Amino acid sequence: MSDVVNPSKDNFDSFCGYHQTWQGGSITELTQVGPGTPCGEYLRRYWHPVSITAELGDKPKLIKILGEELVLFRDKSGQYGLVHKRCPHRRASLEFGSCAERGIQCCYHGWVFDVDGSVLDIPGEPEGSVSAINVQNKLRLGAYPVKEFNGLLFAYLGPIEELPEFPIYDTFDIPGMTMTPYAGPFNCNWIQVLDAIVDPVHTAFLHQSQFSDGFGALGEIEFYEKNKVRFFGTASRRVDDNIWVRVNELVLPNFTQAGSAFAVDGTQTKYFGRSAFTRWVVPVDDKHCIAFAWGNFGERGDPHEYNTPEGMQLIEQGELFDRSYEEKQASPGDVEAVESMGSISDHEKENLVSGDRGIAMYRAQIKKNIRNMQKGKRPPQPGVLAGSNGNGVIPTYGSDTVLKIPGLEDERDILKSTNKQVMDILFAADELTGDDRDRSIISQLKNIK
Cis ω on the peptide bond leading into residue 253 (within 30° of 0)? Predict the structure, then answer.
């Protein structure tokens, strides 16, 4: 029998589990998104995707966005509507109503409401009913503007007097790109999902085995802010004789783009390859959110072979959503990472370091925007990023650039310098759009040695 060592008390002095508090609070200023909350009111000043167009059939659809249950529908004339759930007559849910030739009809007494909430018909009342006429003149069902764009339905849930322009980003129209809408549900607060886009460090640990070996190289991490609206987390990695500069971007409050998921691995030269997805992280309520997006497929996006429901799940989070617990443990993706924080992360227990600077920067700016809004200042819209060319198109930067630059002794300085040169070139082309912008950026990238 081998000797059994009886550890002394001194061996355990550093264990402190019992004395640590188990749970901390969340950043409620950011995590609470329901009607009337500071962040909820802030988010309501922007357009958000709320559904995939093809998923809306000939029946109304109950949805929940920003903590509010709403009914989405398309009437028989093709108009889209988003209205309060309960009929203002006797409070029956309009999810059980029917799509009329114009508007939506309540299942209970047949009242009909237009997409703007006005009362079109009260069929159960006698002709000339004074009470019915008064109701039609005075009553409106709560309704929000809806815009269909390229397979996604967007809504604006804020004060109509502050209705902003619908933002048009340059990636909405890239020649040869196929854009396919998808939705990725997350059972956690929206901030936990949004954080990852300006966290280039996590890809080296969470995604190396899912995308390519090149993702496992940490390289040099940099963070940028532009116009108090846009935030970047960039990574410049060494892959053989190449330097791979990957740019992730966030446009407040929740628009995100990055490089490709599968088209680039750092081994082949690439100039300004574009984002795998064009994506919004939309809060459902405090404990759920949905990533509504287009997967981008083509020469400058990801390979067409990933243009499938399963492929877009891989692009979104590195793994399929529906897997066994054993599979999730063996190869966790973004869902496992962010949902394991809890439905609402206890942010007071976080210990942020230099690699989290992008997260700290964007969170602080959202807080500032919320507080300014409470003082009467409208939150800045993405349109402030549009160049002075007059067409209102917003330039974006989510991309991959791979340059052949052999390694030298001062490797860290080379990585940092290459990253800076790439970002300077991207920023300098803000006043250009379309092919002119691409040509300018690509020609200058080719000159980096």
Answer: yes
Task: State the DSSP string of 354-415.
Answer: GGGHHHHHHHHHHHHHHHHHHTTPPPPPGGGGS-TTSS-EEP---EEEEEE----S-HHHHH
pTM of the model: 0.94
CATH number of the domain enclosing 240: 3.90.380
How is residue 401 written in tokens?
């650039």
Q: Please give the single-letter amino acid code of residue 276.
A: A
Q: Which residues contact 138 (CB under 8 A, 6 or more apart)?
A: none
On whether the CB atoms of residues 95 and 62 are closer than 8 A, the answer is yes
Alpha carbon distance 418, 438 (integer Å): 19
Domain count, the chain: 2
Q: Output the tens digit of pLDDT for each of the chain's 449 residues.
A: 555 556 666 677 778 778 777 678 899 999 999 999 999 999 999 999 999 999 999 999 999 999 999 999 999 999 999 999 999 999 999 999 999 999 999 999 999 999 999 999 999 899 899 999 999 999 999 999 999 999 999 999 999 999 999 999 999 999 999 999 999 999 999 999 999 999 988 887 777 766 767 776 778 999 999 999 999 999 999 999 999 999 999 999 999 999 999 999 999 999 999 999 999 999 999 999 999 999 999 999 999 999 999 999 999 988 899 999 999 999 998 999 999 999 999 999 888 999 999 999 999 999 999 999 999 999 999 988 887 666 889 999 999 999 999 877 688 999 999 999 999 999 999 988 899 999 999 999 999 98
Task: Write the DSSP assignment of 405-449 as a string of letters.
Answer: ----S-HHHHHHHHHHHHHHHHHHTTT--HHHHHHHHHHHHTT--
Label residues 161-191 b or e (16+ Cβ within 10 Å = b).
eeebeebbbbbbebeebebbbbbbebebbbb
Tell me the CA distances in angstroms from 270 to 178, 267, 273, one per residue in order. Answer: 19, 9, 6
CATH of the domain at 85: 2.102.10.10
Beta bridge partners of 48: 155
Residue 31, SS3?
Answer: helix
Write out the residue range of the structural domain in which residue 105 sits.
47-161
| 24 belongs to a structural domain | no
Distances (CA, A) of 326 to 50, 57, 91, 207, 336: 32, 36, 46, 18, 12
Which helix (H) or strand (E) segment is 202 a member of?
Answer: helix 202-206
Q: 224 near 374, Cβ under 8 Å?
A: no
